[in-house]
Amino acid sequence: MRADQRSQNGRRNRWLFPVVFIAAIIVVLLIFNVISNGLFLEWSNLKVIISHLIYPCFIAWGFCFLFACGYTDMSIGGVVVLGSFASCALGNAIGVPSVVLGGVAMGLILIFINFLIFTYTKIPSWIAGISLAMIYEAIAVFLKLGKATKPLVTASLATEYRVLGQLPWSVLLLAVGLLVIYFLYNRSTIGLNIRALGGNKDVAEKLGINVNRTLLAVGLITGLLIGIACFLQQSYAGQTTVKTGLTSINMIFQPLAIYLLAQIIQKHINIVVCVPICAFILYAVFNVLTVLGVPSGTLQEAFLGFFIVIFGVIGQRKAKGVVK
Q1: What is the mean pLDDT of each run of 10 residues along the chain (324 residues)?
Q2: What would you report as the CA-atom Rg of the chain, rounded to the nearest whole angstrom?
Q3: How far apart are CA 130 and CA 119, in angstroms?
């Protein structure tokens, strides 16, 4: 009887947090609506929030695989810039299929190259990532200044080819991505191997897990997710600005905040499912700040930095040893 009772209590507790969490979100959204004089819950405003969060979710999902194996890649912003260039150039030349092909191919190639370097050079991933970010930024500047390439990378993606970055297609891609990534991360052999690798590489190797092969698989999965983010970003924004001086790293701060918040909640809700929920929360906060007149280029970035620090501290409060 006691065992049955504990089992029932466990099931009840598993459902209790999600219900309370969703109820709390609804209450906060209603408060946001009141302080914004009813503007927040207008459908036109909600569409803006939803449209903004789609491509950062794919980058945050990439972080789930990346951090699960204990790696940190600071070059992802530079990859997004080059992938967006490829989506724009090929898309304007051929059409929507090439918008997808350009972003996905560039994401796969560059992130896989990153993981080849991480895996076989033994350089700490954060050091290699910063170096690669500078290289990718230099390539972006070269493409912008080149006579032959400048018209391609400075052009805007034609409106008729931006359909995948618009509702409802972007939300459909998000839903499909959620299902596929949930299976890969939680139910597939490669997902289990990746998480085992992040727990303890030596133990994982003794259990028969091929470390190098698993790391390269992480590179392919993360590259695919970043590639999807590339063409979604270009399809939504229409144009990508060249980033230099490591400012491309700014592009990963919002997805990083999403990941860190999801990491805090993952004990109660699966982290893959948490990502779009946390993305909506984060962009809802920034949306309200914008409605209230808080400058988007200064104070909002300060808020973002504050969120990242707080989420990071909470997420790592029980971690032992040095956090990579």
Answers
A1: 51 70 84 85 88 92 88 88 88 87 92 87 84 89 83 82 88 94 90 77 73 85 93 87 76 87 84 92 84 69 69 56 46
A2: 21
A3: 16
The Cα 213–Cα 27 span in angstroms is 46
Instruction: Dig out the tokens for 153 from the structure.
Output: 């990378």
DSSP string covering 246-306, please?
A: TGGGGGGHHHHHHHHHHHHHTTTS-HHHHHHHHHHHHHHHHHHHHHTT--TTTHHHHHHHH
- Return d(Cα 71, Cα 57) in angstroms, integer: 19
Residue 258: closest CA among 274, 247, 234: 274
In terms of Cβ atoms closer than 10 Å to its own Cβ (0-12, 13-18, 19+), residue 132 is buried
Percentages helix, strand, coil for the chain (3-state, rounded to 5) are 80, 0, 20
Residue 322 pLDDT: 43
- CB of 39 closer than 8 Å to CB of 291: yes
Structure tokens at 183: 């299976």
Per-domain boundaries in the chain: 55-251
What's the half-sphere exposure (Cβ side, CA atoms, 13 Å) at 108? 11
The rounded Cα 89 to chain-centroid distance in angstroms is: 23
